[in-house]
Design a protein that fits this description.
Elements (H helix, E strand, L loop, with lengths): L7 H8 L8 H7 L11 H15 L8 H15 L3 E2 L12 H7 L1 E2 L1 H14 L5 E3 L6 E6 L2 E6 L5 E3 L1 H9 L8 H4 L9 H18 L3 H14 L4 H13 L3 H14 L6 H17 L2
Parallel strand pairs: 1-2
Antiparallel strand pairs: 3-4, 4-5, 5-6
Helix pairs in contact: 3-6, 9-10, 10-11, 11-12, 12-13
């Protein structure tokens, strides 16, 4: 019997199909298959399992969360030497977990995804936080919440530090002491993956790298089926890649899903511009 290999996009759609069973680390790791075709994810999953096993072997059943965090930080930063790539923050390699593990460096969100997976396997209830400008990790300890910056060697952040970081992302008349709570909720895996992909999207847009942007946009459309703007954005990518029929299909689907969108007239103009190109393909 011949088994047809599943495409990376189909595999992605399968992984992110249901919120309740969405495996964050595996889905995040699979993003690297766009840049590294044929990448086998099993070695990555095995590597993380081995990291977590090392940590579990050092923890007693009665260890406090604070002690577990110290042990996780010692392993992650002290022994495995993971660090934030401050020197080349916008390198796409920072978003591919195979390269993060190989190079031992990444950006806040990829380091956090790895840190969370190791910690959870060792019994530490860690969660991601889509904090403005800088993805964080949190857990509960000593009757309150602890917020951790994995990009900064696992440093715990005080409320004052969080408020100071938030100021740059608020209107001038907003009070960070009142707004902070709105930005500290636990991120669902789907939110985390969307933020990770949008980081890559911004990088490829900055570089006008439409060929590398397309698979990122394909993943966003599959991940966020209720956000028609991702269909629109894929349409623009197709148009830049001289795929007018695909672009028109996405633009029309966008207008059907969001008939009152503010950019509707501009999108309709773009459809009219693309139709002669599509007709020439007949």
């Amino acid at each position: 019997m011949t088994v047809t290999p599943i495409s990376t996009l189909d595999y992605w759609a399968m992984l992110v199909g249901e919120d309740d069973s969405l495996p964050l680390f595996e889905a995040a790791a699979s993003v690297a298959q766009d840049a590294y075709p044929g990448l086998d994810l099993e070695p990555l999953l095995d590597a993380v399992d081995s990291f977590a096993a090392r940590l579990r072997g050092r923890l007693t059943d009665d260890a406090t969360v604070v002690h577990k965090l110290r042990m996780l930080n010692h392993l992650f930063f002290g022994e495995l030497h993971f660090r934030g790539n401050a020197n080349d923050y916008h390198d796409p390699e920072n978003s591919y977990l195979n390269r993060v593990i190989d190079r031992r460096c990444g950006i806040p969100i990829t380091l956090a995804i790895l840190y969370i997976e190791i910690g959870r396997q060792a019994g530490i209830p860690l969660q991601g936080v889509c904090f403005p400008g800088h993805y964080l990790v949190k857990t509960r300890a000593n009757g309150g919440e602890v917020f951790i910056d994995v990009f900064d060697q696992g440093r715990s952040l005080s409320r004052g530090e969080l408020e100071a970081r938030l100021v740059n992302h608020l209107p001038d008349d907003a009070d960070p002491t009142l707004e902070l709570g709105h930005h500290l909720h636990s991120a669902r895996p789907r939110e985390t993956l969307a933020r990770m992909l949008r980081n890559l999207k911004m990088i490829h847009l900055r570089d006008d790298d439409w060929g590398r942007l397309l698979p990122v946009q394909q993943r966003l459309v599959a991940l966020l089926p209720d956000e028609p703007t991702e269909l629109r954005d894929r349409g623009f990518v197709y148009s830049r890649l001289d795929c007018p029929r695909a672009a028109i299909a996405d633009f029309e689907a966008y207008l059907d899903a969001a008939p009152d969108c503010a950019d509707g007239p501009a999108v309709r103009v773009r459809i009219d511009e693309l139709r002669p190109e599509a007709d020439r393909l007949n």
